[in-house]
Input
Amino acid sequence: MALLEVSDLRTSFHTRGGVVRAVDGVSFTLDKGETLGIVGESGSGKSVTCYSLMKLIPEPPGRIESGTAFFDGQDLLQMSPKQLRKIRGNRISMIFQDPMTSLNPYLRISTQLIEALRIHTNIDKKAALKKAIEALEEVGIPGAAQRVNQYPHEFSGGMRQRVMIAMALITEPDLLIADEPTTALDVTVQAQILDIIKERQNRLGTAVILVTHDLGVVAGTCDKVNVMYGGKLMESGTAEQVFYNAIHPYTRSLQKTIPSLQAKGENLYTIAGLPPDVSKPIHGCAFYPRCPYPKTGAPEGDRPQLVDAGDGHCFADCRFCDSSAPIETVLPQKDAGDLAGEELA
Amino acid sequence: MSDHSETAVLADEPVPPPTEASEIAAEELEEGSSLWRDAWQRLRRNKLALASLFIFLAICLFCVAGPWFSPYNADAQDLFLGAVGPSWAHPFGTDTLGRDLMVRVMEGGRISLLVGLVATMVALLIGVMYGAVAGYLGGKVDSAMMRFVDLLYALPFTIFVILLMVAFGRSLWLIFVAIGAIEWLTTARIVRSGVLGLKKQEFVEAANSLGFSHMRIIVRHLIPNVLGPVIVVATLTVPAVMLLEAFLSFLGLGVQPPDASWGVLINEGQQNMEIFPWMLIFPAFFFALTLFCLNFLGDGLRDALDPKSAKD
Output
């Protein structure tokens, strides 16, 4: 049985401007020790998906409309706040985007590291502190025994993110949700942080959900990838499937935006237009207005469902554009011919 | 473990062997709440605040213990003596009824300090909890709670006190209640606005994601972050409360003769200011000195409570 089985998750925000369907029917599964990458533009529902799993959506205005999220046989979405508190920080932990604000400035690192441990396990203070120091050492903080008594402002951004990782993993959770853990950090530190997450994951057998809009990060670290757009999955599959055999026009467009894959001296590729306004009803494919492929029909009806293209590689079958048209994707295409055939089928 | 870490940052810090240090750390932790202990460490380095603390404690001691060592009784009148200036027998002089002013300043100080500190404590306790809960819960609960605060703000203070006096009779405790009930409103507003800003920060979300209860988040994570402004308010509240007490006494609603408070003594002194200046000077001096000390102390405490102000 999969560690996490999410099906038909729908989360909306009831605002004055209407109902914003931030997550609109997302399903995926995650096994023990696996890494799932969720990619997409800002506002595509990546973070809301994760927050919904932890039930950290502020209610109101947010509301989880429907869906199930079975974590180790229990539905997270049906749990009482008390049950949830036992899971949060203990079996599912989270790392946040901005390490500068995700530590309490008024408490020592030791206090913050120990707090989670002491709440979830029967451990005495001394043992907890020892464990906290070990946890800091494991994420590569030199002089951990001294550093543990310092305050967050005495740490740099990269160091703070390491502390956050140590804090999230100190209870050895089964699932780690990392919500853009490297976005606020500079590039060299990004690589270190990802290395550490990877290393800790291998050691502890933790499953990881990595939310990012950096496709390079996904390619390097993830087993599975979900591509989200307008609150729905556009494409999902193994990292290889999604990267080398991308089917959906949106995934292909995203790939084109990777700067390192573009020739030097050229303007960076951007996807024209804006992400869809999910507070308004969307007919047909949400990506239609921005789709670079020749259009074959006007979008109508419901948003396209995910269909399996084989081997668990799913994509939202849009049928409103001619994606068999020549694609100038820069990634090496393994079976471009097959792809086109599959999509037309 | 990755070894491409930011060792350079630490280069200037001596690094003792880790085992030893972890023992030290464990010992330090045993001593409990690190926030207050650290604050005390930092406060000790602030000369002005420390001096203020000692002067303030000295004033408290003077007022509390003083009357036991004085040969005079605060309400013992000596009408033949009348008002005389400071002398060896009466270091602060006597008032128009021949009562020893030093004992009266001590006795008055007991009441003024008690009212000032207790009412402020009550106000802070209620205000901080109320404001933090309102700010943290937000939404409709917050609106309802803050409208209640507005309602109390609108209530005329004097009428409120008179009503209390009529209903429960006159007592010192009622003054605490009345003053506390008014003064917590400002604290609640300040704390609420602080918490509203703080709860958007990721460390609150992180605390939530680690499975902490709401109460724990409010008490351990949010309130320490708003203590800075609260302390400043508190140091301003103490004198305000003392003045309120003097005002109530003046209206006949507070401390009644022959009992005295600094407010009452200053009021009496002010009436005889031109003929018997010592009657104003001594109580006013103690009043002012106390307020000075509390202000410096509050300022120092605010800096001490903020880990970022530490120079170590």
